[in-house]
Design brief:
This protein is α+β, with helices and mostly antiparallel strands. Among the domains are: about 85-295, Biosynthetic peptidoglycan transglycosylase-like (Penicillin binding protein transpeptidase fold), CATH 1.10.3810; about 405-655 and about 665-715, DD-peptidase/beta-lactamase superfamily (Beta-lactamase, 3-Layer(aba) Sandwich), CATH 3.40.710.10. It contains 21 helices and 23 strands. A hairpin with a 3-residue loop joins strand 17 (about 600-605) and strand 18. Helix 3 (about 120-135) runs antiparallel to helix 5 (about 160-175). The termini are far apart. Mean pLDDT is about 80; it is low at about 1-5, about 135-140, about 295-300 and about 675-740.
């Protein structure tokens, strides 16, 4: 007997199997649906809870332009220098991008860029799958241009699933906030193209020496081919790989319908040989530039042959002080007072005079009547020495003792205190003062150059002849504190110790200090702090700094005081120690030489331009003789000053310094009768004032200060004949508390 239920209709088993399979598919479909819903929900939550973080700031190259460039026009082509920390980058707008470049980049990197919403789902799937398998074979993962930009700007380069998912979420959010063209422009301004060039503008300059707007098809295809791995496809290093990548980009452009096959063939035919320019300087058959001839080298500085690197180092420092660390990487447009013509005249005047390889060096700073530093000779070879000789300690070196060029500051204080420049002083070979401002028990012993007895001189004549012993008596009247205060008021920023020896230049100052202070005399008592940056704009043209709004002229001494100093210093050039500095335009100035001729100076001015000249060794040492001549402020520095000013003031409207004596009180009235003054006309048309001195005592009036100053103890002065009126070599000491000073 057959068991019940053993006989089943045919096909029943097959139907059961099919039914189970269908239910299995339903379960999988359900699971997929649930997973999709959960994923969509998670994505929705992510899009609503994850905010775009602040974008990483991109470094941009700042451009520095000289005084010939108009405001608003400073750019790649007319700048004298590019400043950057490590990246050469200049941002451009979408309108600046040529169509062939946009097409080439899309063909190479993201052919559906204008169609998708920021991500490529299939690409993300491949990336997740690859990560789960732990494979390192494929890391690209089909990232869109938006994703690449997000990774560069908002994220790190770590290769994890969480980072990839976060990249996708941020890409979608970014697409919802920015126009496609904005995203593409930001991407092309951000990516690295090799050779230190970030962004398409810097890349176009680095590889072709032209702006991005001027790119041709073969150039655009080449740059697009660099994006994935720029260093390995540089045509100079690997022309075979460069050719392959360019051909790939061009083929994709043909497939997308951007160009024809014939256009692709023509672009592929351009060789990787850099062709020289034609007679007009225009590039012929422009291909990739050699790496060492890039137009955007990070060290790019024009006018390097006339010392512009020293200017740029100081400009960079000032930008950081004004706008913070890294200011030079913010795409600034910096306009300076650098005048190429004036700077060349200054550099030539210094280097043609001081042209011995192991000889002394020199520095020159010129400041015009508006306070602009128009020339600054700070060194001769920036690659060998980056010490800025014009700026003293700020320039990385040390200040230098100014010698007798410091005397006009005492003269200004003397006149301001009401004393006349006709006041007579005996000028013995040496004198001494008790150590009120020196070490206890020590005497200050200033000496005239060569221990010369110059007889009785007016303050005016003592200035012409640079008498140390007369100025020792003057500083005793005005006090060292007043002298230091006057120097600071006029523009000397270096630290000054108020002691007697200060009048002979015992403290270290910079060449800029002296130009600044003397320019106050030239401006008839008005001081403008010298400046070298006139304007700063950001990359959009917004003005961040304007010197015309912040630089002000301040009347620091009475106009009458300045006029009297000017008239006196004019005499120093016409018939004093500075005759070698005579130029065709009325000018005033003063010589200065320190002990053993370690430093020699000439500082002078017209009513339009002031220039300070220093010569010496970077590490101070004696310059007794150079080119067979004795070194003093009235020799080589005066020659350099004359050579420079003759060119720099050409075309200026000359103006006379008025003859005046602002002071009323006569010091040492008893000596006044011992002098007789005559004026004679020289063959060259100038006048010479000479004085004959008679017998007399050497007493001085007491100080007008409420505190009684010690009276000077002077040696007996024999009767003098007419004082010499020609330039004489001289030396000025930078004395210690016991050292004697000599002056020119």
């Amino acid at each position: 007997m057959t068991p019940k239920g053993t006989n089943k209709p045919k096909g029943t088993a097959a139907k059961g199997t099919k039914r189970r399979f269908i239910w299995g598919l339903r379960r999988v479909a359900y699971a997929v649906l649930v997973l999709a819903v959960v994923s969509m929900g998670g994505l929705w939550m992510a899009l609503n809870t994850i905010d775009l973080p602040p974008a990483k700031p991109s470094a941009q190259t700042s451009f520095v332009c000289d005084s010939t460039v108009s405001f608003g026009d400073c750019d790649f082509d007319n700048s004298m220098a590019h400043l950057s920390a490590a990246e050469e980058r200049v941002n451009v707008e979408y309108e600046d991008l040529p169509t062939v470049l946009v097409q080439a980049v899309l063909a190479a990197e993201d052919q559906k860029f204008f169609d998708h919403g920021g991500i490529d789902p299939m690409g993300i799937g491949r990336a997740v799958y690859t990560s789960l398998r732990g494979s390192s074979r494929s890391r690209q993962g089909g990232s869109t241009i938006t994703q690449q930009y997000v990774k560069l700007t908002y994220l790190t380069s770590e290769r994890t699933i969480s980072r990839k998912l976060r990249e996708a979420v941020l890409s979608i959010k970014l697409e919802g906030q920015l126009d496609k063209r904005d995203i593409l422009t930001r991407y092309l301004n951000e990516i690295y193209f090799g050779r230190g060039a970030y962004g398409v503008e810097a890349a176009s300059r680095a590889y072709f020496g032209i702006g991005v707007q001027n790119l041709k098809l073969h150039q655009a295809a080449y740059l697009a081919g660099l994006i994935r791995s720029p260093e390995s496809a540089d045509a100079v290093k690997d022309p075979k790989e460069a050719t392959r990548r360019r051909a790939t980009v061009l083929a994709n452009m043909v497939k997308q319908g951007y160009i024809t096959s014939e256009e692709a063939d023509q672009a592929n035919a351009v060789p990787w040989i850099w062709t020289r320019t034609d007679d007009d300087g225009n590039p012929q058959n422009m291909t990739v530039l050699p790496r060492n001839r890039t137009g955007t080298d990070l060290a790019h500085v024009r006018y390097s042959e006339i010392g512009s690197q020293y200017w740029m180092a100081e400009v960079r420092k000032q930008l950081r002080e004004r706008f913070g660390t890294g200011a030079e990487t913010r795409g600034l447009r910096v306009y300076t007072t650098f005048d190429p013509t004036t700077q060349r005249a200054a550099q030539d005047a210094v280097t043609k005079t001081l042209n011995r390889s192991n000889g002394p060096v020199g520095s020159l700073v010129a400041v015009d009547e508006k306070g602009r530093i128009t020339a600054m000779v700070a060194g001769t070879d920036y690659s060998k020495s980056k010490v800025n000789l014009a700026l003293g300690k700020r320039g990385g070196g040390s200040g230098r003792q100014p010698g007798s060029t410091f005397k006009p500051f005492a003269l200004a204080a003397f006149i301001e205190d009401g004393y006349s420049i006709e006041s007579p002083f005996r000028s013995p070979p040496t004198t001494e003062f008790e150590g009120v401002y020196n070490s206890p028990g020590k005497l200050w012993n200033p000496k005239n150059f060569g221990k010369a007895d110059l007889g009785v001189l007016s303050v005016e004549e003592a200035t012409w002849k640079s008498s140390n012993t007369v100025y020792a008596g003057m500083v005793n009247l005005v006090t060292p504190e007043r002298l230091a205060e006057m120097a600071r008021r006029l523009g000397v920023k270096s630290k000054l110790t108020p002691r007697y020896a200060l009048v002979l230049g015992s403290e270290e100052v910079s060449v800029l200090d002296m130009a600044s202070a003397y320019s106050t005399f030239a401006d008839r008592g008005k001081h403008i702090t010298p400046y070298m940056i006139t304007r700063v704009e950001d990359s959009t043209g917004r003005v961040l700094f304007d010197a015309s709004e912040s630089v002000k002229a301040t009347q620091v001494i009475d106009q009458g005081v300045a006029d009297t100093v000017n008239w006196t210093l004019k005499g120093a050039i016409e018939h004093g120690t500075g005759t070698a500095a005579r130029i065709s335009t009325p000018a005033a100035g003063k010589t200065g030489t320190t002990t053993d001729s370690k430093d020699a100076w000439f500082v002078g001015y017209t009513c339009h331009l002031t220039a300070a000249v220093w010569m010496g060794y970077e590490q101070p040492r004696t310059m007794k003789d150079f080119k067979g001549r004795e070194v003093s402020g009235g020799s080589f520095p005066a020659d350099i000053w004359r050579e420079f000013m003759s060119k720099a003031t050409k075309g200026d409207q000359p103006c006379e310094f008025p003859q005046t004596d602002f002071g009323q009180r006569i010091v040492n009235q008893s000596l006044a009768s011992k002098r007789t003054t005559t004026t004679t006309e020289n063959p060259n048309g100038s006048t010479t004032t000479s004085t004959a001195d008679g017998e007399g005592d050497s007493s001085t009036t007491s100080s007008p200060s409420t505190t009684q100053r010690p009276t000077p103890s002077t040696t007996s002065a024999p009767t003098s004949t007419t004082p010499p009126t020609s330039s004489a070599p001289a030396t000025t000491a930078a004395p210690t508390t016991t050292a004697a000073a000599a002056g020119d």
